[in-house]
Specification:
371 residues; alpha+beta; 8 helices; six-stranded mixed β-sheet; Rossmann fold; ATP hydrolysis activity; 20 strands
């Protein structure tokens, strides 16, 4: 697996370096002093809500947006002011952007023709690119005879046909239905593994980012909130925003004090004492703190579990999600808490009004910055 995106000194395997990138539109800072290093061969996702700056960063790399400040370096070459058509980057758009009057083969071969390729060689490369996305049998079809998923595969083949070192993907699956989107997510991940091209992917879909990426950069208001491997961001969020944006979390305010075991004790606003074991990379908070607890780290039982933090509560609502139940529980010590329980193997039947115990291990919650 490739290393995480960093903002430190350049490394030998770095293919993209962004330094102090800023883009303003009048008084609005769409991107605000972003610096980022992307390793060669990474599948890096820029993740954020609408207006977070992710697409502006991607379009700046592509050359369709001119930065107000900062620079972009690709493979040691400063491309900040290089025209888009001279950058040699592959691009896949959300709306496919296929030429309706051209066949699948002609669409895929278009980047080769504008580069002055040789016809016989081009035919072979078009066939190879289409085979990569399992579309070579439809080489003579017209775009209007293809499904949305097929059109997106053709757009992907067109972006790869000239073997770019970097492929930029701007929310390419957002127009597809849920099942097809999940299928193509897997195919994209497998394709990346097969060809080794650096993928820079933009999405607002958290599940998509978590399932596909080597590394994720979470953006907020034009700035990087946190970056790293998916598992690191999910299990070790630095802030309330990240913990809440990637999945769901319960947030428990309290007061932290050192514990003889080497962890901390958190006193909740309801006066209950709870234990917290610290991870190796986790600083011990002192005084007022905010703890993040994932719903899936909670076990709902009829009686307290030994070695766990336990608070009592009453089930106030249940939602069914196929394999899981989402259980809403009102607790005197913590207020409302959301738990996630396996629908078939849960310890208790999730009946509204039932009195239950909410349990989690001391290492299964994390101190986060309240921002």
């Amino acid at each position: 697996m490739t290393g995480p995106a960093t903002t430190g000194p350049a490394t030998a395997d770095e293919i993209v370096r962004i330094e102090g990138l800023t883009k303003t539109y009048g008084a609005v800072r769409a991107v605000d002093d972003v610096s980022l290093s992307i390793p060669r061969g990474a599948f890096l996702t820029l993740l954020g809500a609408s207006g977070s700056g992710k697409t502006t960063i991607l379009m700046s790399i592509a050359g369709f947006v001119q930065p107000s400040a900062g620079r972009i370096v690709v493979a040691g070459r400063d491309i900040t002011h290089v025209p888009a058509n001279k950058r040699g980057l592959g691009m896949v758009f959300q709306g496919y952007a296929l030429f309706p009057h051209m066949s699948v083969g002609d669409n895929v071969g278009f980047p080769l023709r504008v580069r002055g390729g040789k016809r016989a060689v081009d035919r072979d490369r078009v066939a190879q690119a289409l085979a990569l996305v399992q579309m070579d049998h439809l080489i003579d079809r017209m775009p209007d005879a293809l499904s949305g998923g097929q059109q997106q595969r053709v757009a992907l083949a067109r972006a790869l046909v000239f073997n770019p070192a970097i492929l930029l993907l701007d929310e390419p699956l957002s127009a597809l239905d849920k099942k097809l989107r999940a299928d193509l997510q897997w195919e994209l991940k497998e394709l990346h593994h097969k060809i080794g091209t650096t993928f820079i992917y933009v999405t607002h879909d958290q599940d998509e980012a978590l399932s596909m990426s080597d590394n994720i950069v979470i953006l907020r208001d034009g700035r990087i909130e946190q970056s790293g491997a998916p598992g690191t961001l999910y299990h070790r969020p630095a802030s309330r925003f990240v913990a809440d944006f990637l999945g769901k979390s319960n947030f428990i305010p309290g007061t932290a004090a050192p514990d003889p075991s080497g962890g901390i004790t958190v006193t909740t606003r309801g006066g209950q004492l709870l234990s917290k074991a610290l991870a190796d990379d986790e600083a011990a908070p002192a005084g007022p703190c905010l703890m993040a607890l994932r719903p899936e780290n909670i076990t709902v039982t009829h009686t307290p579990l030994e070695g766990h933090n336990t608070v009592e509560g009453t089930i106030t609502g249940v939602s069914f999600f196929g394999a899981d139940h989402q259980i809403m529980i009102e607790t005197p010590a913590l207020g409302p808490v959301t738990a996630r329980s396996h629908a078939l193997r849960g310890a208790v039947a999730p009946d509204t009004g039932a009195r239950v115990c909410v349990n989690w291990r001391p290492g299964d919650w994390r101190a986060v910055a309240d921002r």
